[in-house]
Design a protein that fits this description.
Helices cover about 15% and strands about 35% of the residues. Strand 8, helix 1 and strand 9 form a beta-alpha-beta unit.
Length: about 190
């Protein structure tokens, strides 16, 4: 029997709110996000279901499945660490398709699945898990820095374990920059395999 980690309650601040409007990676800043059970209103990832893709090789591609990737949540601190690793002055959340940029939560990407993010409006996001970095995102960042084609593949290595989280709406409401977010993890034990 492995020793369980206790439940934790953390808090942070919403630094930015964004919507992905097109099939491109980039997102655009918004003064608030309206969350419904289908996700962020107006975001291309909005929907109760989504088609399966490369991340779900156990289903034929395009199979309708629960949309557990309604939101992309990133850490301002982790973005800064990735920028340093790539020798860049900064990486903006918009370049990597963020819906939320949070600050003040140590090791955000390491929050375990099932963690809850609760906002003042009552909006609540349930974390599905971490978001693996991909070269498509690296290519988007490279496009912002002429002569730095190395970023396309370099981002994947630099962002591993720091690319943020994906999650889905457990409770509807609005999220605005400056909101305090309360994070609750659950008691958990490492699976012994």
């Amino acid at each position: 029997m492995t020793e369980a980690m206790p439940a934790l309650t953390l808090s942070g601040v919403v630094d930015g709110t964004f919507v992905v409007e097109t099939a491109a990676v980039e997102s655009s800043a918004r003064p608030e996000l309206m969350l419904t059970y289908a996700g962020v209103v107006g975001d291309r990832h909005e929907g109760l279901v989504r088609p399966s893709g490369a991340r779900e090789p156990w289903y034929p591609r395009g199979t309708p499945m629960r949309n557990e990737r309604q939101l992309s949540i990133l850490s301002a601190e982790e973005l800064a660490e990735i920028a340093v690793a790539l020798n860049l002055p900064q990486i903006l959340g918009q370049w990597v398709g963020a819906n939320l940029i949070l600050s003040g939560i140590p090791h955000l990407t390491q929050l375990p699945p099932r963690s809850l993010m609760m906002f003042p409006s009552g909006a609540t996001i349930r974390v599905d898990g971490d978001n693996d970095p991909c070269r498509k995102t690296g290519k988007t960042i490279a496009a912002q820095h002429q002569g730095r084609a190395d970023i396309e593949f370099g981002f994947v290595k630099a962002a591993m374990g720091k690319r943020g989280l994906v999650g889905w709406v457990e409770r509807e409401g609005a999220i605005r920059p400056g909101d305090v977010v309360k994070v609750r993890t659950w008691r958990q034990a490492a699976y012994p395999g």
